[in-house]
UniProtKB/TrEMBL annotation:
<keyword id="KW-0965">Cell junction</keyword>
<keyword id="KW-0732">Signal</keyword>
<dbReference type="GO" id="GO:0005923">
    <property type="term" value="C:bicellular tight junction"/>
</dbReference>
<keyword id="KW-0812">Transmembrane</keyword>
<keyword id="KW-1015">Disulfide bond</keyword>
<comment type="similarity">
    <text>Belongs to the immunoglobulin superfamily.</text>
</comment>
<dbReference type="GO" id="GO:0005886">
    <property type="term" value="C:plasma membrane"/>
</dbReference>
<dbReference type="GO" id="GO:0044291">
    <property type="term" value="C:cell-cell contact zone"/>
</dbReference>
<dbReference type="InterPro" id="IPR042974">
    <property type="entry name" value="JAM-C"/>
</dbReference>
<dbReference type="InterPro" id="IPR003599">
    <property type="entry name" value="Ig_sub"/>
</dbReference>
<dbReference type="Pfam" id="PF13927">
    <property type="entry name" value="Ig_3"/>
</dbReference>
<dbReference type="InterPro" id="IPR003598">
    <property type="entry name" value="Ig_sub2"/>
</dbReference>
<dbReference type="InterPro" id="IPR013783">
    <property type="entry name" value="Ig-like_fold"/>
</dbReference>
<feature type="transmembrane region" description="Helical">
    <location>
        <begin position="235"/>
        <end position="257"/>
    </location>
</feature>
<dbReference type="GO" id="GO:0005178">
    <property type="term" value="F:integrin binding"/>
</dbReference>
<dbReference type="GO" id="GO:0098632">
    <property type="term" value="F:cell-cell adhesion mediator activity"/>
</dbReference>
<feature type="domain" description="Ig-like">
    <location>
        <begin position="20"/>
        <end position="125"/>
    </location>
</feature>
Amino acid sequence: MAMTPLVACVVLSISLGLIPSSLGVILRTMDKIVWANEFEPIELTCLIESISTNNPRIEWKKIKNGVPSYVYFQNKIAGDLEQRAQLKEPANILIFNTTRSDTAEYRCEVAAIDDQRDFDEILISLAVRVKPVVPRCSVPEAVTVGTSTELRCLENEGFPASQYRWFHNSEELPQDPKNHPKFINSTYSMNPDTGGLKFRRVRKEDAGEYYCQAKNEAGHAQCPPQTMEVYDVDILGIFLKVLAAVASGLVVTVCMYQCCKRLCFPKKGHNENNYNWPAQTSAFDYVDDDEGHFRHKSSFVI
């Protein structure tokens, strides 16, 4: 539908700023997606492009997990930002020191009762970057030439998620060793997202100090260096085999001793050869001392 000449003239005049707009309140922002580093200040802009009401009602709400809460209400800072923010004219919010809990959506609302369009709102997404903490690193103390092993690195505090880099003797290892002449014979593979450093076949040259660095847009942190030694012979394996052999020998010796003890020294018991001989009796029997003589009790058979 074509505009009438009068309407077209009014729209053109408003767009050129020749006459003030009385159609309603209009808001805009510098950035609808805002990134901030933790503990640093950030300003959320809510610019009023046109308004006729002298004292509009301004409110800010924080929306996290779908639940709104006030951060500016009845002309004062409230909620999570209390004592940590202020309203700057005309309707901007300045946060003095952002924290990871401030990551959310923020909605600026302006109500103007004297305007034909008496309400407008704008939504801003704030994401707070968090510096990584010192990652947890796992480096084997000793490995054998030709075997496989894995070094691990992980931290869970950084936002956005950290990317990982490994260093060998203070020199950064390239993500793909095949693209670098110095590391072309290396057999490792690196995953920058998980922090894993896997060696398919360890070489003598792989011995040395290793440390890992976790990094994102807010900063980086690294674990202390740890030494990995590479041996030609599996000393630990040999020691364990010898220990197992000695233990087996001791067990066999004890078993043989117990068997010999039971066979060579049987327990005493009753059998057909074990009986008591009757006590021998004398042909003479003596009477008591007070009788003063002895008595012949049995006769001789001739």
